[in-house]
Input
Amino acid sequence: MCGLATFVVLALSGVPFAAVIALLVAIADLIPLVGATLGAIVAAGAGFLHSPIAGMIVLVFFVLYQQVENHLLQPVIMSHAVQLNPLAVLVSVLIAAQLGGLIGALLAIPAAGIVQVLLRELISGAGQQAAPTDSVDE
Output
């Protein structure tokens, strides 16, 4: 999606080699957390080399695109991948990024999945415990 949208913006802005730059952006976007930023730097740099107006258009596009991707698309996609609530994904990434920086943000979703599994096991284990029976040996 990012590569196609980048191609459209670069082509409409008149940036030469829009297809090649969009392909680089699409490949860079596969890198978690920092890939979209690396791709944005390449595309914005190419836009500014073409013209300052094209560079600003590309820069604004990437700021908007990354906000939509980070706050709408990623939580939904990650929640389906690890079967977590999208809000839990977003909150866990925000908390872990504050506590552990980049490493914390990378480990946030697996940690949230582990916590979810442990809580499910704890709750289901507590509900399945049978009440002790009073039996008298005769």
In short: DSSP finds five helices and no strands in the chain. Residues 1-69 form one domain. The mean pLDDT is 84.
